[in-house]
């Protein structure tokens, strides 16, 4: 517990609320000087401020201004705003003792404000206005500087506004960025100028962190946070650092390998108790492989190498998130062999001097797979036979082309009993009378088919393409709720 040597004496009334909420025998927090007029501070000394990062029930930053012997305090859920166009909430809380300005430590569980407290910044400030309905100050700190004003919006809640222009480098965080895409291809003839990453068999995700709060979306802007609440851990790790991360959400199978089929069991669950149960039985992790924005700066025009260096500096290594390696000192052929030995999906090759191109599928990123997978659009289904009579037998699959939905075959393996039951419920809700396929089905398949509106996307693993353009030996991997039908393309 840290206590200031020159803490001014404080009239008891100013700290009565503070002390009523805390037991000095149970918390290391300072209780304030008690001897009347003892060690009074020289009034000629500049007034001080402190901002403390507080990992309590919800991460926030405590903003404290020295005033009349105490620290007048506000809790800022998203920290100080850097942009004058964006105000942040400031919850007015009880005055704190002057010596709280040097406090760092852990408030025990069960106590008021339980959690870790660290000093984020401190310094001095000038007062321009101090009224009951307006506080205007100029901060002089290492991380926090400039003119700010606080004003109430109701009895408890205030707002804090930056009055100075944003720093010259500052750029507001984009609300949505389309992820850069990779072309299917082969290893380059020469390794120089390329970096190799393992291809993870999961769901692509862009994670936005601002003031410790997290948003996460698929490449089609579908929110993922309720499905994967583990992603909030990234916000706790980054704290006040704002960032946009590109990566993959993965789940490990019984062989400890990323496996989309394992992950797919979590993609369509909406019940909070069920999500919480799956969070423990089928844990997911976020593998970050690119950094698009960091603390007011867009990183997208920087080279891949520079972005990766900044990403590594964030030290994203935790129970639910990691930064997988970018390999530049091993040949592509060797990296591909390693991925095959470990049962990974393949590798992604990235040009080291390339910028990040949102929504672009260029030759700067190339994916090489160890086994064939293909996203497909479901256009219909057939009933099962024998022991599967009355249930789902097979799915009729297509790939969108300029001419329409091209039929590429059917898949009847790779399903669990639960998969079949769930798919049948969803497909019956999409029923239509006519075929959605632009290419004709065989007479037998047409007679048995139940056609559906072609909106549901799935993924199959298969051996090869047949001469007539159909999938050979396809096996079902799962529904791709993170994809939309119009984005499905033939990959190989």
Largest sheet: 8 strands, antiparallel, barrel
Counting helices, strands and paired strands, the structural category is mainly beta
Number of domains: 3
Task: Give the overall silhouette.
Answer: elongated
Textual characterization of the structure:
This protein is mostly beta strands. It folds into 3 domains: 12-162, no CATH class; 181-369, D-amino Acid Aminotransferase, Chain A, domain 1 (2-Layer Sandwich); 373-487, OB fold (Dihydrolipoamide Acetyltransferase, E2P) (Beta Barrel), CATH 2.40.50. Helices cover 13% and strands 38% of the residues. It has 8 helices and 27 strands. The chain has helices at 16-20, 232-238, 260-263, 272-281, 304-313, 332-341, 417-428, 443-448, and strands spanning 47-55, 59-67, 70-76, 88-97, 105-107, 115-131, 134-141, 145-152, 157-162, 181-184, 194-199, 203-210, 213-217, 243-251, 284-294, 297-298, 321-322, 346-351, 361-369, 372-383, 392-401, 404-411, 449-451, 457-462, 464-465, 471-472, 475-479. It has an 8-stranded antiparallel β-barrel with strand order 1-2-3-4-9-8-7-6. Strands 12, 13, 14, 15, 16 and 17 form a 6-stranded mixed sheet that branches. It is elongated, with a radius of gyration of 29 Å. Mean pLDDT is 91; it is low at 1-7 and 34-39.
């Amino acid at each position: 517990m840290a206590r200031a040597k020159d803490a001014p004496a404080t009239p008891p009334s100013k700290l009565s609320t503070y002390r009523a909420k805390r037991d000095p025998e149970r918390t290391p927090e300072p209780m304030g000087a008690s001897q009347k007029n003892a060690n009074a501070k020289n009034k000629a000394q500049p007034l001080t401020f402190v901002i403390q990062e507080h990992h309590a029930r919800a991460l926030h930053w405590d903003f404290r201004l020295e005033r009349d012997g105490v620290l007048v305090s506000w809790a800022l859920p998203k920290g100080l705003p850097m942009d004058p166009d964006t105000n942040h909430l400031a919850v007015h809380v009880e005055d704190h003792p002057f010596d709280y300005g040097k406090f760092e430590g852990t408030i025990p569980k069960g106590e008021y404000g339980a959690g870790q407290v660290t000093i984020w910044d401190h310094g001095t400030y000038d007062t321009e206005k101090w009224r009951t309905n307006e506080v205007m100050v100029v901060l002089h700190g290492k991380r926090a500087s400039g003119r700010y004003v606080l004003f109430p919006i109701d009895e408890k809640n205030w707002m804090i506004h930056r009055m100075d222009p944003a720093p010259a480098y500052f750029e507001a965080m984009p609300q949505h960025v389309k992820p850069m895409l990779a072309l299917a291809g082969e290893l380059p003839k020469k390794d120089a100028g390329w970096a190799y990453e393992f291809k993870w068999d999961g769901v692509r995700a862009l994670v936005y962190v601002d003031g410790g709060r997290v948003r996460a979306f698929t490449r089609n802007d579908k929110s993922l946070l309720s499905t994967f609440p583990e992603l909030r851990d990234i916000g706790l790790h980054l704290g006040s650092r704002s960032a946009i991360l590109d990566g993959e959400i993965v789940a490990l199978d019984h062989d400890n390998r990323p496996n989309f089929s394992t992950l797919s069991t979590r993609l369509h669950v909406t019940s909070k108790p069920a999500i919480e149960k799956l969070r423990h039985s089928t844990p997911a992790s976020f593998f970050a492989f690119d950094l698009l924005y960091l603390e007011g700066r867009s990183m997208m025009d920087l080279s891949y190498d520079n972005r990766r260096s900044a990403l590594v500096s964030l030290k994203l290594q935790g129970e639910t998130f990691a930064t997988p390696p970018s390999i530049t000192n091993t040949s592509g052929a060797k990296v591909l062999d390693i991925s095959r030995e470990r049962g990974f999906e393949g590798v992604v090759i990235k040009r080291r001097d390339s910028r990040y191109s949102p929504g672009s599928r260029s030759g700067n990123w190339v994916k090489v797979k160890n086994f064939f997978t293909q996203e497909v659009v479901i256009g219909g289904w057939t009933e099962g036979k024998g022991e599967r009579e009355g249930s789902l037998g097979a799915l009729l699959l297509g790939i969108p082309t300029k001419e329409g939905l091209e039929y590429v075959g059917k898949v009847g393996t790779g399903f669990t009993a639960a998969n079949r039951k769930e798919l049948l419920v969803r497909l019956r809700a999409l029923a239509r009378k006519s075929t959605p396929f632009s290419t004709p089905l065989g007479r037998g398949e047409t007679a048995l088919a139940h056609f559906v509106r072609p909106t549901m996307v799935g993924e199959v693993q298969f051996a090869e393409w047949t001469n007539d353009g159909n999938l050979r030996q396809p096996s079902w991997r799962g529904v791709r709720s993170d994809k939309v039908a119009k984005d499905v393309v033939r990959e190989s």
